[in-house]
Amino acid sequence: MKKRILIVEDNPMVVKSLEFKLIKDGYTVIISSDGRDALEKLKTENFDLILTDLMLPFVSGSQIIEYIKQNIPGMPIIVLSTSNQEDIITDAFTMGVEDFITKPFSPNELSLRVRRTLAQY
Amino acid sequence: MNFHSSPFEAWPFILKLNFVLSLCFFCLSLILISALYYQRLNKNLKLKRRKALENILLDFINSYLFDEDFDKNEEVFKLKKEHLPTNFHLKIALKQLLIFNENLKGESTAMIKNLFISLGLYDYIVSELKSNAWQRKARALFVLSQLSIEIPEGLIDPLINDKKIEVRQQAILYILNLSEANPLGFLNKIKSPLTLWQQIYIENSLKNAYKGEIPDFSQWLNHDMCSVVAFSIRMMSEFNQFQNIPVLMAFIDHKEEAIRKEAIRSLGKMEHNELLPILISKFHNETQLIKQETLKTIKHIGTYKHLADLGLGIYQENNSVKVTYYNLERYFRSKPSFNIDSIDLILKSPLLTP
After folding, report:
1. Cβ of A16 and B103 within 8 Å?
2. Which of B5, B215, B241, B326 is the most exposed place for a label (fewest CB within 10 A)?
3. How far is CA B153 from CA A78, B175, B241, in A?
4. Looking at the predicted structure, is the pLDDT value of residue B343 above 60?
5. Is B67's Cβ below 8 Å from some Cβ in A?
6. Which chain A residues in 48-107 lie under 8 Å from chain B, judged by CB atoms?
């Protein structure tokens, strides 16, 4: 059965590229373009991994991470963010995310990290 | 009574005039509303077409980058023929490529560059560089710089001295972004002063983007442009070029005040202590700007003794210099650790502050 990945990202170009690449890699990809929609999906559907930006409309990436850690603790999270400030990256890892990828990103590297993270869970 | 004559002709003149004018205004408003409606319709249509093309390009670029079965040559040919017939379409394609380039790195960057050339965008950008409109030239330079596309030097050189500052700025950025060994070679070619913004851009690029060896700034100390000399002096201290201190010492007597100021500031930043006795000896013959800079340097690398060496002549100075002096005096007296040489002097001398 195909693994289900939820992508939470508001940049259409990034969404399209991630979707294209991950579908090619054999995953089922579900898209949320804002934090509110992502929370709705997390409440009603099951996912094997979540790939999220931190800066999102309505509900931030950090709030989504908090929700997952409290309600779906086993779900691995990869953050994809433009921020390369040390404190933001440290904060994300302190919250319990599995990986942090900074934009601009290499799609092949991202694909490898997704595979590695899914293999661990 | 004439029953065949039109009732309009029977109207009084004022009524006729009123009617004709009303009709004119009505027609004018009708034309105006139609024009506005047409314009809006046209704009919406254009936006719709643009959006459709953006979606086509988004799918196309993704397939080009990530689909190994994608027949690149064939598909590029088809895309150019079917969807990119005019410069307007090429401009949209360029924008999409820039968005991809901004968000992706690694092997995708090289592929984006290949796609840029395959789509014929290189020729389009070169033609934009040769256009007369400054905004088109500046935009073309920005694109080339973002995608790191190299173009012949002959095309870039004239733009370094373009009459529009925006073009000059983008040309400098382009050179800084693409240069691997000689990022400031353009300084020898510029004929207009470096603006403060340009200086900030250059400094920023050298510190954050440029990977090669930082050039020795002493090579521009005899440049014709005062701004280039001042900038070079400032960069010497920014990049710790201590080997240039002896050369820099000669510049504290330069005829240009701005250059003298930069030399003092740079030497002070490099903590060259031999500077202070010279500055103090010529303090009272200097301009206000240099006096202020001297006081700042004393605060940075000097002691209370250096300040006291300025002597009673300080009472002859203008108020702004005096205020800086008194603040500095207070600063030294309030400092928890005095220089041991100055303690004796401080105890003996009365406070100069009124």
Report:
1. no
2. B5
3. 44, 10, 30
4. no
5. yes
6. 103-107
Domains and CATH numbers, chain A: 4-120 (3.40.50.2300)
Q: What is the pLDDT of residues A22-51, one digit of tens each?
A: 999 999 999 999 999 999 999 999 999 999
Interface contact flag, B66 A12, Cβ < 8 Å: no
Interval B205-217 mean pLDDT? 88
**Peptide bond before B277: cis, by omega within 30 degrees of 0?**
no
Whether A16 and B105 lie within 8 Å, measured CB to CB: no
* Contact criterion met (CB below 8 Å) for A112 and A85: no
B54: nearest CA partner in chain A: A13
> In Å, how far are A33, A67, A77, A115, B270 from A100, measured between CA atoms?
19, 18, 9, 14, 40
Angle of helix B134-147 relative to helix B165-178, nearest 10 degrees? 10
Tell me the H-state helices in chain B: 7-10, 13-66, 72-83, 87-103, 107-118, 121-129, 134-147, 153-160, 165-178, 196-208, 226-238, 245-249, 257-269, 275-281, 288-301, 304-308, 319-334, 340-348
